[in-house]
Write a structure and sequence with these properties.
Blueprint (H helix, E strand, L loop, with lengths): L9 E2 L3 H4 L3 E4 L7 E9 L17 E14 L13 E7 L3 E4 L5 H14 L4 H20 L10 E14 L6 H7 L30 H9 L3 E2 L3 H7 L15 E4 L5 E3 H8 L27
Parallel strand pairs: 1-7, 4-7
Antiparallel strand pairs: 2-3, 3-7, 4-5, 4-6, 8-9, 9-10
Helix pairs in contact: 2-3
Length: about 300
């Protein structure tokens, strides 16, 4: 039976682990990108979990993802050069609860893969991140005594991920900023928040029409891996007037006109018409049968 925090709760704090940190720099992946992650316990998360359903008699592991989007500037051969790295954006993903017996990495990856893919992480990089996080959670959980049936044990873990756009040889810092991966250039999180409805008691309060959400979730996105491929899809985005950059995502409407994925999402949130030809992208009055889209 699921219970909430209105019942007595045993909050577990392990002094020998609470201040520890596990860090990992990912190996070579996509050119121009790097990823680094760290994990630690943070009891401040306990103040946020009254919205979530938790199970008594098991060890509930809470993960909160904190993401920093960084421009990593090129250093000169003399060791000086480009100045300090820039944090250009940040975001937090919803807290995910796992039971200790659900500690396989795929259980965590299931909840966050959609956003890791937006960060342009490879499958190996996603696997490494989730394995390290779950291993850390398993390490902490193993130091906690097995709970009694009435005990409600919560293990709060922060997973901080740096998504680094790396300035390349011959690339200006302005060009690196233009192609940088950041939250404002990705699909809004409200499109994916229903994925977590089985873990939270909080209702999705987005005011976006269900038909719009359904259409945007089904709209195909193509990642630009070389400039020629991007130019074949569109010469420039008529919404932002910028050419396709490596790493950008492009979406094509049913009428055939293409735009940056995040640009067309912002446009369709206000109007269901194509910005180029004014053809309807979707029928806002159509009542699609959407199961579990918004709780």
């Amino acid at each position: 039976m699921l219970v909430s925090l209105s019942l007595p709760i045993f909050r577990i704090v392990l002094p020998d682990l609470a201040n520890s940190e596990r860090s990992m720099a990912h190996g070579a992946g996509r050119v121009g990108m790097e990823y680094h992650h760290r994990m630690w316990m943070d009891n401040e998360l306990l103040s946020k979990i009254d919205e979530y359903t938790l199970l008594p008699g098991v060890k509930n592991i809470i993960f909160e993802m904190r993401i920093n989007f960084i421009i990593k500037k090129k250093r000169t051969t003399s060791g000086g050069g480009g100045g300090d790295d820039e944090i250009i954006d940040s975001e937090k993903l919803m807290i995910v609860r796992l039971k200790e017996e659900e500690d396989e990495p795929y259980a965590l990856l299931y909840h966050i893969w959609y956003r890791l893919d937006d960060y342009w992480m490879t499958g190996d990089e996603m696997d490494r991140l989730t394995r390290d996080a779950v291993d850390f959670g398993r390490q902490v959980a193993s130091a906690v005594a097995n709970p009694q049936p009435s005990d409600l044990i919560v293990i709060p873990i922060v997973v901080e991920l740096d998504v680094c756009t790396v300035q390349q040889d011959g690339e200006t810092i302005e060009a690196a900023r233009d192609r940088a991966i950041k939250a404002q250039n990705m699909l809004p999180l409200y499109l994916w928040s229903p994925t977590f409805s089985m873990k939270t008691k909080k209702k999705n309060t987005t005011s976006k029409p269900l038909r719009l959400i359904y259409f945007l979730k089904q709209l195909k996105r193509v990642r630009v891996v070389n400039v020629d491929e991007g130019l074949a899809l569109m010469s420039f985005c008529s919404i932002c007037s910028k050419k396709p950059m490596i790493g950008a995502q492009i979406s094509t409407l049913p009428c055939g006109h293409a735009f940056h994925a995040h640009c067309i999402v912002g446009s369709l949130e206000h109007d269901n018409l194509c910005p180029t030809c004014s053809s309807p992208a979707y029928d806002p009055d159509y009542r699609a049968e959407i199961v579990n889209t918004v709780q």
